[in-house]
Write a structure and sequence with these properties.
379 residues, 16 helices, six-stranded mixed sheet, four-stranded parallel sheet, globular, 16 strands
Length: 379
């Protein structure tokens, strides 16, 4: 499919149906389809499509030879989503890893996703398309902090966002994703909830269940944190008819102001209460996980949307809604780790599977319980 992309004059990007799917810069360098200038490989003018087609054919051949399946997250580059067997959010991919019949999983995502697949399906060979693709937020909580909270709140339930490493899952009571966190937290008998590692998702869920007491961790997604209320307001001025869809990892002015005031006064930020909230989520018409954002836009009668999440989701949005328009609200809505994964990465993973996910069995046994409990409670 031919596609074309360009930057908006004042804010964000507009993505339209007629886009050149292999954007070229000066006819010499293959760059990311969303225009971020991520260099894949040097090519001669006119050779890009032929090279891509050769890679795709080689991938298909190797998949059959090695009994492999390709799983991709919505945030990876569109060309990778196009050749993947399954594309989805963290919950869908974690559940899928337990049911696919293939013996080898090629995982196009960040490290914690491959770990989750291995934890749930130890008999399978899980290979990362790029092992260096990591999620900073997954490292934003320490085991010692969990122990401290358990000591202070003996009845606490440690609710672990799936965006975390195996050692953190192993210390938790249940895992959640942004699509099932509310459902699972409501089902827990515990009043005290320690939500890790993402503070913003934790606060979003906490507002929905005021009967529970939340303890928050100081973790965040740098992509969603880079989206500010002012960005949304400016984009809305340019596109007043647009519906605003946001991911619950988004933060905004209210949390930043809370932290700034607390730092100035030298007191915990939870002691600061701001009556007027102007954050991104309050400006949104709908807040949901990546898959929920896609479903909302697809089922909506509206034709124009502002998207407050990672821009890799635009590929699926356009596949399902070619007649609709989708705008970002800023210039930093992309995850550099997810964008490390290209067609070349997938081919290398199949040809030379050196990026296999390995895990100590004792650790896996401890981490599988919270993940399995998530799959059960999310039903």
């Amino acid at each position: 499919m031919d596609r074309e992309i360009w930057r908006g004059k004042d804010v964000g990007y507009i993505v339209k149906k007629k886009m050149n799917r292999s954007c070229r810069k000066n006819g010499m360098v293959s760059v990311n389809r969303w225009g971020f200038g991520s260099v894949n490989r040097a090519v001669k003018k006119g050779e890009g499509k032929e090279m891509d087609q050769e890679i795709k054919q080689r991938i298909e051949t190797l998949k059959k030879e090695k009994d492999a399946v390709i799983l991709a997250h919505y945030y990876v580059d569109g060309e990778v989503q196009e050749i993947a067997d399954y594309v989805g959010d963290s919950y869908y991919l974690a559940e899928l890893a337990t049911t696919v019949p293939q013996k080898t999983i090629i995982f196009c995502g960040v490290s914690f996703m491959g770990e989750s697949a291995k934890i749930l399906s130890p008999e399978k060979t899980v290979i990362m398309a790029d092992r260096s693709a990591d999620c900073p937020m997954a490292h934003m909580v320490e085991v010692e902090k969990i122990h401290e909270v358990r000591k202070e709140y003996p009845d606490v339930a440690v609710v672990c966002y799936v965006n975390s490493m195996a050692e953190i899952k192993a210390e938790s009571d249940v895992c959640v994703t942004s699509s099932n966190a509310l459902k699972i937290v409501k089902k827990l008998p515990n009043k005290d909830i320690f939500f890790i590692p993402d503070e913003n998702l934790g606060r979003f869920i906490a507002k929905k269940v005021p009967e529970k007491h939340f303890i928050f961790n100081d973790g965040f997604c740098h992509v969603h944190k880079s989206i500010h209320a002012e960005d949304v307001k400016k984009a809305k001025e340019l596109h007043p008819e647009a519906v605003v869809l946001a991911h619950p990892e988004c933060t905004g002015d209210v949390l930043k102001a809370q932290a700034d005031i607390a730092a100035a006064l030298g007191i915990p930020k939870d002691n600061i209460f701001i009556l007027h909230s102007g954050d991104v989520l309050e400006l949104a018409d709908f807040v949901g996980s990546t898959s929920q954002i896609i479903d909302y836009a697809t089922n909506s009668d509206e034709k124009v949307f502002l998207i407050c999440t990672e821009m890799g989701v635009f590929y699926e949005l356009l596949q399902k809604n070619p007649e609709k328009k989708f705008f970002s609200v800023g210039h930093r809505q992309f995850c550099p780790n997810m964008k490390k994964i290209h067609l070349d990465s997938v081919l290398r993973a199949l040809e030379n599977p050196e990026e296999e996910v390995e895990m100590d069995e004792a650790m896996r046994q401890r981490a599988v319980g919270p993940l399995a409990r998530m799959l059960e409670l999310a039903k």
